[in-house]
């Protein structure tokens, strides 16, 4: 596992914050991102699951893990080929043991295909601290461009609009003896 490196391009950054502040915030966020590649064999992934559990136990900061886990969470995550129970068991054990959550994913359901087999093996996992800091993020799985994997990107979800109440004036308040005094004071 290797942390994602930040490629800084000042000319492409837009922020209401000062440039150096924006870059510091972006760098701090990217330091909390881990990318993974799960090996193809179930037994070869055991070290990855253990390393992720150990790393999560040592962290208190927001954390996102994103990549090709080469494992499924549900039996629906593969079409066109049999799945072994251990593929589902080990990945679910990671979530149970760490409290990590799968970030909401939109777009393509299957993230890998060889045209005969379709699998959902690419995901983004986050810890509760990440959700508290960035609650309006989701992963978008787009059509593959240069590989047999879907292009995965993190997008900001528009927070739900809060319902506004119409202004209501209660006429009977005008009849109170100190009404005009209160209005003048405020």
UniProtKB/TrEMBL annotation:
Residues 37-149 form the Endonuclease/exonuclease/phosphatase domain. Coiled coil: none annotated. GO terms for molecular function: catalytic activity. Gene3D superfamilies: Endonuclease/exonuclease/phosphatase. This is Endonuclease/exonuclease/phosphatase domain-containing protein.
């Amino acid at each position: 596992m290797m942390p994602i490196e930040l490629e800084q391009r000042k000319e492409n950054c837009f922020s209401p914050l000062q440039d150096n502040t924006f870059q510091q915030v972006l760098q701090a966020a990217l330091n909390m991102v881990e990318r993974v590649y799960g090996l193809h064999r179930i037994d070869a992934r055991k070290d990855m699951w253990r390393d992720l559990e150990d790393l999560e136990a040592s962290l208190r900061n927001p954390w996102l893990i994103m990549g090709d886990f080469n494992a499924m969470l549900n039996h629906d995550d593969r079409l066109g080929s049999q799945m072994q129970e251990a593929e589902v068991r080990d990945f679910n054990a990671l979530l149970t043991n760490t409290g990590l959550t799968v970030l909401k994913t939109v777009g393509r359901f299957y993230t890998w295909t060889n045209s005969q087999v379709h699998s959902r093996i690419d995901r983004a996992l986050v810890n509760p601290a990440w959700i508290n800091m960035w609650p309006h993020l989701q992963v978008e799985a787009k059509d593959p461009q240069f590989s047999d994997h879907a292009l995965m990107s993190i997008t900001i979800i528009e927070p739900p609009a809060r319902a506004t109440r119409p202004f209501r004036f209660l006429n009977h308040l005008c009849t109170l003896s100190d009404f005009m005094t209160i209005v003048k004071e405020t």
